[in-house]
Design a protein that fits this description.
Shape: globular
Distance between the termini: 44 Å
Helix content: over 70%
Number of domains: 1
Number of strands: 0
Order of helices and strands: HHHHH
Structural class: mainly alpha
Strand content: under 5%
Number of helices: 5
């Protein structure tokens, strides 16, 4: 229970420290990714009381989930930029707009299917009780993961724009 109360404090410290670190020195994107993975695994270990075997089975799936989110963000930004450009064109190219909208929708469907497959693999490594706990925390867990990834993406973009 003490660790459960400690987790929000640790996340708050990290959230406050990351912007400070970004001002001091550039943070390599891969290192940030490893830190996020470690935080996510630590949260799951803490909240689900995972065994070493379960950690070994789940870690690659957490990494895949993180990579999926990063890939979605990159591909989505490209398509959104294309869509903005197509909308700004005069006269508008209706076919280009239609194709880009379809690509964006297909991307969302594809990513959601891949996400669900990864979540099923994670759940497959859990006991029934852990599955129940995971069901209760999964939405919050993913929302916090997205928030962390978005914060990191912003910091990396800020660093790149300064260089």
């Amino acid at each position: 229970m003490m660790r459960a109360r400690l987790l929000p404090a640790v996340l708050l410290v990290i959230a406050l420290a990351v912007p400070v670190l970004a001002q001091v020195a550039p943070i390599p994107e891969e290192r940030v990714g490893r830190v996020i993975e470690a935080l996510l695994i630590w949260r799951l270990v803490d909240e689900l009381d995972l065994s070493d075997q379960q950690i070994a089975r789940i870690f690659p799936r957490i990494k895949a989930l993180k990579n999926l989110r990063l890939e979605l963000g990159r591909r989505k930004r490209v398509l959104e930029l294309e869509l903005r450009q197509a909308l700004a064109q005069r006269p508008q190219n209706q076919e280009a707009i239609r194709i880009t909208v379809a690509q964006l929708q297909a991307l969302r469907v594809e990513m959601e299917q891949r996400r669900q497959r990864i979540l099923r693999q994670i759940e497959g490594a859990l006991t029934l009780e852990q599955q129940a706990k995971f069901a209760l925390i999964a939405e919050r867990f993913e929302a916090e993961t997205l928030r962390l990834l978005e914060e990191v993406r912003r910091l990396i973009e800020q660093q790149q724009s300064r260089q």
